[in-house]
Amino acid sequence: MTQIPAPTFEWLELAPVLVVLVAACVGILLEALLRRESRFLAQIVVAEVGLLAALVFAVANWREGRIGSLAMGSVSLDGPAYLSWTALLVFGLLALSVFAERNLNDGASSFVASAASIPGSRHEREASAAGHEHSEVFPLALFSLAGMMVFTASGDLLTMFVALEVMSLPLYLLSGLARQRRLLSHESALKYFLLGSFASAFFLFGMALLYGYAGSFDIAALNQAVSAPLLGRGFLYAGMGLLAVGLLFKIGVVPFQSWVPDVYTGAPTPVTGFMAICTKLAALVGLARVFFVALGGERWTWQPVLAVLAVLTMAVGVVLALTQTDIKRLLAYSAISHAGFLLTAVVGAYQEVGSGQVNSFGAIAFYLIAYGFSTIAAFAVVTMVRNESGEATRLSDWAGLAKRNPWLASAFAVLLLSFAGIPLTGGFIGKWAVFASAWAGGFEWLAITGVAFSLVAAYFYLKVIVAMFFLEPAEGVEVGRASAFTIAPIAVGVAATVYLGLFPGPVMDLIAAAQVFAR
Amino acid sequence: MFWLTCLGLIPLVGAAAMCLPLKGAAKPVGLAFSLATLAMAGVVAGLYFNGSLPAGTADWIPQFGVQWAVSLDGMGLVMVLLTAILTPAVLIAEWDTAERVGRWPVNAYLGLVLLLESLCLYVFMADDVLLFYLLFEATLLPMYFLIGGFGQTRRAYAAMKFLLFGLAGGLVMLVSVIGVYVWSVDATGQPTYYLPDLISLPDSPQFGWLLMICFLIAFILKAPMVPVHTWLPTAAEAATPGTSTLMVGVMDKIGTFGMIKICLALFPTESKAIAPVMIGLALLSILYGALAAIGSPNLLRLVAYTSVSHFGFMVLGIYTFTEVGTSGAIFYMVNHGFSTAALFAVLGFLVKRRGSAKVADYGGVQTVAPVLSGLLLLAGLSSLALPGMSSFVSEFMVMAGAWSQFWWVAAIAALGTVLAAVYILLMYQRTMTGPVAETVKQTVTSDLGARERAVAGVLVAFILVLGFFPNLALGVVEPVAAQTTLLVGGK
């Protein structure tokens, strides 16, 4: 008789995720228990304190070196997992702070007063006039964040799928909650949901086929099965492809990028900032874990395919960004191009490095950290430039911003320069690291192609800088008087961007020590 | 290392200080910082001649083998001194420019100039390829804002064109910079960007050509050579003359500087193989730049085109692989800095009075402003390399170097010297001599003031002193030329 082992659960090691989940649940309870007026403030406190506590747990565990396979092998807590958890929690703290801004909309948040009512209806106007607001956004974001954390540390594909759903469902909802341009917001939520469900289905199907091949969902077991000369490799290739579709969709890689511009534009801007980095980070770490660890033995098969996709992604992101006239869409296409740049390092799959050097995953991690600070701050800046109907997102509205507010314009210029990969910003170091690891992994042509696309990309970032600094100010646009909830993330983002550009050493050290996946 | 780091830090602190609300004190404070830098450069030069200027390194990004490595050789020293001298000269020459343009506050102007000075100083000191690259790219930004913020008509276009050309060069160079990482890891297992380490790496046919070509393209774009020079006339026309001085006099020298310090030193074999192409491009630049200068209807564009021609001479000197040619090229870099600065300064004073840079808008200026036209003539004669002027020595040395390799190359280059006489004297004749134009009479009501005379006078004095005593500079640069020539295996 086979013995059924008693389930084990490592509470302390998993505390960071649990704390975030508990905070989210407390948030839900607060919705039911508290009066409407006091909810918003309470939610902010619960969310930020929860994230801070989780961060403390994560850092403490990391320092103690608590790594290993947890929760019956479904969570694999290793260096990359700790890196991602810390980054996700820090980005969560910053992004949720932008959620909390209420000075820019005459005392209301960026979120709709009554999500369930028809846009433009009497009911919506009444709710708006009564000052209602959806403070559930905080628990929703926390649930999503917890999903992302588990996703980056999944030890098997099943956990990964559950985490994928946990992180995605709240995001679909959050996308539809914008206060202004309700219909666009609805459209974006619906698009994201439909396409996202398709992608999840692909992921699920791929998982099933891989199970058919390896007889296990476990990533370590898959690794062994892939390296062994088993029969039925058709299952493997089909499963690998379908799984990749699900993951690449979340990153926004061509040809699965079509949702990105619409969702980034339609979602409330604070949410855009949140998902632009956190989703991308989680999905890329997941992709790296699956392809480097589980499917590492098949790298000769997937490298060429991903290389072609990387080139396409860079091309589509960069070329279409050239023609954009809306700042949010521009940043969305820029996000697509960044997905392409990041993918070059995945393709390189450069693993064998000397001690203290950075491998492919390390390069990706650094890129994402630098990109994350810049992205959250950039979308926070977008919330501050306003006309009478709300956020002024047309590029022509941004003309002459330096005359109205030189500090904000300079901050945004730094962020754009970082996106463009100009030296002395974190963006440059990231780009340099990913291209270096692509080249070192044997994809010299891909690194050179990436550099070429970087030049084209520089043009549209510079276009914004030219508009802000060298053109006459646009009529009817002003810089809103934001509270510290928005200013602080911008300040932190800009400072981190410059710091990572000037002194990348300490962060690189941290990454170099934690960049190897558990196998 | 301490002294060198401090040298670049002074203008950087000055640039940061310009963020404070200094109001009326901004200009004196800015000038004080640039003069302090000059004093520090003097100290560094003293230490250099004393032999007590140690090179130093400190880990910066150890994961990629990047170091904060600064040192000075003879070539670096003369470029550092040139930068330290030209910056205060520009600030004094353009004392009231920012107010006159009136678009951005004056501390923005001072801050950007000081930031540019700091970055340029560090570029000339950098001993680490990545550090060099970072600074090389970073210099673009203050220059971009100087053109776009304080320039004249078409400034946004000119700034964008400048930056895109600059970034194109920078990103091409990024390929090489990434390649250096892979190359050093391949060769030794440890990444390094430290130049002396890289020089000792074995030749690699796999990397050599690609890396050399990418570095070279970046430097060709920087030291504008035909056919990728087009950004320079556009930028010089739109920018203030002081900005153009820093752009042509200091920044663009990074191109020729890099050819010697990086291309020749790291890739001697490949550099030798590509020399015919480079000599061809150099001759093309010399002749095309001179002809375009003759035909230029705009004074500032004219000076820009003369610079294209002069950069041709520098590159010619470098790629002859002779000691005399390389010394001449390095000395040319300094002389060209002074003579262009003098030309831009005097023309700037003139353009400010008349409000136009068109050659056709002038005539007979020497009657109403004799000092101005006299100084313009001196600066112009320096540009056409008249004996007695410092540029004569360097041009002669480049020719001598070229002659010893291929006599016909020197013969073609000599045409450039003849054309130089045409463009300078023709320009002088059209604008300064003849009957006084009515508009000139109304607008050019005063000759140069004391401040303007001082700046132009000092610059011309440098030209004359170096013309009569070239060994002051040649003694410093000759060891570098000898070492480079040895590395490449020339004579």
Count of DSSP helices of chain A?
20
Main sheet properties of chain B: 2 strands, antiparallel
Q: Please give the domain count of chain A.
A: 1
Radius of gyration of chain A: 22 Å
Largest interface: A-B, 38 and 37 residues
Task: Name the overall outline of chain B.
Answer: globular
Helix and strand arrangement:
The complex is a heterodimer of chains A (519) and B (491).
Chain A: H1 15-33, H2 36-64, E1 68-70, E2 75-77, H3 79-99, H4 122-129, H5 137-152, H6 157-175, H7 182-214, H8 219-227, H9 233-251, H10 259-266, H11 269-294, H12 299-322, H13 327-348, H14 360-384, E3 385-387, E4 390-391, H15 401-404, H16 406-420, H17 426-440, H18 444-470, E5 478-479, H19 484-502, H20 505-514
Helix pairs in contact in A: 1-2, 1-5, 2-3, 3-5, 3-11, 3-14, 3-19, 3-20, 5-6, 5-11, 6-7, 6-11, 7-8, 7-9, 7-10, 8-11, 9-11, 10-11, 10-13, 11-13, 11-14, 12-13, 12-18, 13-14, 13-17, 13-18, 14-16, 14-17, 14-19, 16-18, 16-19, 17-18, 17-19
Chain B: H1 2-17, H2 26-50, E1 56-61, E2 66-70, H3 74-93, H4 97-101, H5 106-125, H6 129-138, H7 140-150, H8 155-188, H9 195-199, H10 205-222, H11 231-238, H12 241-251, H13 253-266, H14 268-295, H15 299-318, H16 323-354, H17 365-368, H18 370-383, H19 390-405, H20 407-432, H21 438-443, H22 450-468, H23 471-488
Antiparallel strand pairs in B: 1-2
Helix pairs in contact in B: 1-2, 1-5, 2-3, 2-5, 3-5, 3-12, 3-16, 3-22, 3-23, 5-6, 5-7, 6-8, 7-8, 8-10, 8-11, 10-13, 11-12, 11-15, 12-16, 13-14, 14-15, 14-20, 15-16, 15-19, 15-20, 16-18, 16-19, 16-22, 16-23, 18-20, 18-22, 19-20, 19-22
Question: What labels describe this entry?
Answer:
heterodimer; A: 519 residues; mainly alpha; three-stranded antiparallel sheet; two-stranded antiparallel ribbon; 20 helices; globular; B: 491 residues; 23 helices; 77% helix; 2% strand
What is the gist of this entry?
The complex is a heterodimer of chains A (519) and B (491). Chain A is 71% helix and 3% strand.
